[in-house]
Amino acid sequence: MTRIFFTATAAAAAVWISGAAAALSDSDCDCYRTSANDVFTDYTLSDFRRVGSPKAVPELQSTLPDSAFRSTPDADTGVLQDGFISGPKWNQSWTIQEWGRPKANDTLYPMSNSFSNVFIDRNKDGDKKAKTKLVLRTRRFEGFQSAAEVEHQQKNLLYASARFRARVIGDAGAVAGLFYYQNGNNESDIEILTRDDPTIIRYSNQPTVDDDGNQIPDSSTIFNLATKQRRDDIEDKKKRSFLSPRADGDLAWTEWHTHRIDWIAGKSSWYVDGEFELEKTYGVPTVPSYIVLNMWGDGGVWSGEMEVNAEARLEIEWIEMAFNTSGPVEGVPDEEDNARRKSKRADACTKMCTLGDGAPHQSGAVGLRRTDSRLAIAVAIGAMVLFVAF
Question: Pairing relation of β-strands 94-96 and 132-141?
């Protein structure tokens, strides 16, 4: 199902639910509206703030795995952390990647994704109510870089609004990615390069280069959190140079922020902490896609070179997404989730919930449909007209 265009011909009354009793049942919301007035028929929350006591962080092997460039049943690409990451709640919504990439002409060393680089850790300096967090780690070893990537199980997103409560910390030479993906021509990115000044975020729709290797205008934008300045990546003469990080307090990607990317027909939009920052009409994905998170480096001109034994982390408290699909809602649900994981029709939007920009109600689980004081049940007074684009 594609974007729903919603028009109310009369006023609508909103009943706001506050406090701990604000978790609504599935029957309370048929559809979800964003601050941009885009409407989606499904909702999911991956909440890593209270998922039990973290188990020991897996050790990384310091040599390139024999199976780094192939996926086999006996792959030796790390071990899963005990507890939450090895359990059903995580696996209902996410899969950890184990593929690798050999050294290329434009990179200095190979890269290998490892199970061991995705884990739950204690959250000592995030939200006061967030006791734990998800971590994606990358570390440089002599001869290769160990990396992390996870994919969401919902593979048929066709338009979505996704929010990531995240920060990036660590050494230069890594790339943190939060993006919608299907292939090289259908991808919308939030990327943070740890070689950049910590105020710089890069927003792009792929492809960013043409067949001759030339940068495509308006495909990639460099955005400054502190000044709100934007410039086309094609104009950035320092793109391949290392920039010395400086302390920018709450305006840096080293601090916790809510990064948001909206994908609708013909437009991608980026937000930080609820504030609109940028939109693009170039290269907007047109086919069903899915969410990918990664943390990697390969010594190439994009990531830069990381020093041996250095590392960097992408840390996430929660991921919230309202979305439409090209078919039934999928994933790997347990029996309890089967009832809610179903396709919906746009004309079933009789109870509209408005998705806010604050932290969602804590569920302590992944994939559960939860709402809180930021979601209002909109009760239409008068006729409503729903225009659905297929």
Answer: unpaired
Q: Which long-range contacts (CB under 8 A, 24 or more apart) does 63-72 make?
A: 63/141, 63/143, 64/100, 64/110, 64/112, 64/141, 64/143, 64/144, 65/100, 65/112, 65/114, 68/100, 68/110, 68/112, 68/144, 69/99, 69/100, 69/101, 69/102, 69/110, 69/112, 71/98, 71/99
d(CA 217, CA 209): 9
Spans of all domains in the chain: 4-43+344-388, 47-324
**Neighbouring C-beta atoms of residue 205, cutoff 10 Å:** 26
| Block residue for tokens 């996926």 | 71
> Rounded distance, CA 339 to CA 208, Å?
41
Q: How far apart are the first and last CA of the chain?
A: 7
- In percent, the amount of the chain with pLDDT more than 90 equals 64
What are the tokens at 84? 């939450």
At 349 the pLDDT is 80
The Cα–Cα gap between 65 and 140 comes to 14
At 364 the pLDDT is 53
Q: Mean per-residue pLDDT for 320-335? A: 74
Model pLDDT for residues 124-166, shown as the tens digit of each residue: 998 888 999 999 999 999 999 999 999 999 999 999 999 999 9
Residue 250: helix, strand or coil by DSSP? Answer: helix
Token pair of 158, please?
């066709």
pLDDT in tens, 329-359: 765 444 444 444 444 454 568 888 988 888 8
Burial 16-53 (b: 16+ CB within 10 A, else e): ebeeeebbbeeeebbbbbbbeebbbbbbbbbbbbebee
**What CATH number is given for 47-324 in this structure?**
2.60.120.200
Tokens of 58: 């897996």
